[in-house]
């Protein structure tokens, strides 16, 4: 599902125009990004949480040459679904036979 699909579905369900809905979605994305850039955590009850995780430096291996390669430490945005959301997804997909 793309952002455009999400805008259409929300617009149809709320009665807002597509432009208004897109502005709301863009605002939400901007707020989540800003919070993560400031090292804050964003919690949405019943859905999950967004946080910044630290990946430590490590030594990897180049599969082509088999030489060790240093991978520097990085910070990555991460999403962790809530327990109830994980259960809903599991129940829905396991009952549909996927």
Task: Describe the overall structure.
The protein is an alpha+beta fold and 98 residues long. The protein folds into 2 domains: 1-40; 41-58 and 70-98, Irregular (HU Protein, Chain A). It has 3 helices and 5 strands. It has helices at 3-14, 18-37, 83-96; strands at 42-44, 48-55, 58-61, 68-71, 74-81. Strands 1-2-5 form a 3-stranded antiparallel β-sheet. A hairpin with a 6-residue loop joins strand 3 (58-61) and strand 4. The longest helix is centred in the first third of the chain and has 20 residues, at 18-37. The chain is extended. The model has no long low-confidence stretch (mean pLDDT 95).
What layout of secondary structure does this protein have?
Layout: H1 3-14, H2 18-37, E1 42-44, E2 48-55, E3 58-61, E4 68-71, E5 74-81, H3 83-96
Antiparallel strand pairs: 1-2, 2-5, 3-4
Helix pairs in contact: 1-2
The value of Rg in angstroms is 19 Å
> Major sheet, described briefly?
3 strands, antiparallel
- Report the uncertain regions: none
Q: Can you tell me the CATH superfamily of the largest domain?
A: IHF-like DNA-binding proteins
For the termini, the CA-CA separation is 18 Å
CATH class of the largest domain: Few Secondary Structures
Oligomer: single chain
Strand order, main sheet: write it out: 1-2-5
């Amino acid at each position: 599902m793309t952002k455009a699909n999400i805008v259409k579905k929300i617009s149809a369900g709320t009665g807002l125009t597509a432009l208004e809905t897109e502005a709301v979605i863009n605002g939400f994305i901007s707020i989540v990004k800003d919070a993560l850039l400031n090292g804050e955590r964003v919690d949405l009850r019943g859905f999950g949480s967004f946080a910044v995780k630290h990946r430590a430096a490590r030594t990897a291996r180049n599969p082509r040459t088999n030489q060790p390669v240093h991978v520097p430490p990085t910070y990555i945005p991460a999403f962790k679904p809530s327990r109830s959301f994980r259960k809903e997804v599991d129940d829905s997909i396991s009952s549909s036979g996927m």
